[in-house]
User: What shape does this take?
Amino acid sequence: MEIHDRILGDTLYLEGILTGARGRCLAPELIERLADAVDHGHELTLLLADTVRATTIDHTPTGSPHRHGEPHRAVPYFAEAGTGACPHGGSPHARHTGCDDDVLICLDSPIGDHCPGCQDTAGEPVPWILCPYRPASADLQDGGTL
Assistant: This one.
């Protein structure tokens, strides 16, 4: 839906430019091309809206075939303290905290969401975007695109 909103916003912006071009009696070829771009933008937003509706209506989430303690859900994942993503460096800081295997993480350095349910099976963090049990209507994350 985010891409739909961005395209719709750009299309509305182009409509404003088209109105201004018509009001200033700019070249007819320019006005015609701007009108085509506006029409194309509206068609694209309608197609994206139809796609989203079809995806959310037709998709029913599949249950997980394995049994474990963690559900399939998006959970923030943080960078290790002292790495380039950590603004505090390697020295102890109030925003550093411990996790498994005595690794310190920096709570000011989120690097995306992961799925703890998939991590139980894989033995390592699995990005939320790669979770096969993620609902189709979930927001695209970690650089995902439509």
